[in-house]
Amino acid sequence: MLNAESTNFMEIKITDANKMGGSINSYINYTVSTTSNMEGFGSGDNIVNRRYSDFVWISEQLAREYPGVVIPPIPEKETIGFSSFGMTSASKIDSRKRGLEKFLQRVAQHQQLAYSKSFTGFLSVQDLASVKSGAKSGSK
User: Fold this and answer.
1) Looking at residue 8, what is its pLDDT?
2) Maximum Cα–Cα distance for the chain, whole Å?
3) What is the per-residue pLDDT across 101-115, written as a single tens digit (0 to 9) for each?
4) Given CA atoms 27, 94, 128, 63 in this order, what sign does their dihedral have?
C-alpha cells in the first residue's frame, strides 16, 4: 500500500515469471500487476511485462530524478540457468521475483518516488520505450 494516511493506494504484485527465448538469448519475463487509484493509472488495474533490465532502468532513473533519495535495492543479477549451492533455476527465479516485487512495493511506499511519472509509467504503460524516451526529455 502507498500510505495508510492517504486516500491514494497502490498494490503491486509480480504474478508470474516466465523464461523466454532460446537457451543463449533467454531472459525472464516478469508479469507486474498493479491496482491503484493514483493519477496516471487510467482504469486503476494494469498488467505489464518487464525484464530484469527494465527494473535496472527504473532504479537508475529514480536515482537520477531524485538525487539524495535512497532508492531501494533490486536483487543482484546472476545467471539463472546454472545450479549453484543446490538452488534450482526455478528457486532462483522465484527468489528474484520476490526481491523485485519487494523493490516495487518499497518504491510505492515512498512519498516522492511513488508519484514519479517514470515509475507510474513503468507500472502502467505496455511500451516501456515511450516511458524511457519521456524520461530522457527530463520530465518527472
Assistant:
1) 79
2) 48
3) 999 999 999 989 998
4) negative
Beta-bridged to residue 13, according to DSSP, are 33
Contact 75, 52 (CB under 8 A): no
129-136 contact pairs (CB < 8 A, 24+): 132/57, 132/61, 135/61, 135/65
CB atoms within 10 A of CB 83: 11
- Residue 122 CA to residue 132 CA, distance in Å, equals 9
Q: What pLDDT is recorded for position 83? A: 46
Instruction: Say how far apart CA 36 and CA 43 lie, in whole Å.
Output: 8
For residues 37 and 45, give the distance between their C-alpha atoms in angstroms, rounded to a whole number.
9
Amino acid sitting at position 25 = N
Which residues of the chain have a pLDDT value below 50? 1-5, 82-84, 139-140
pTM for this predicted structure: 0.84
Torsion angles phi and psi, residue 10, rounded to 5: -150, 125
Amino acid at 74: I
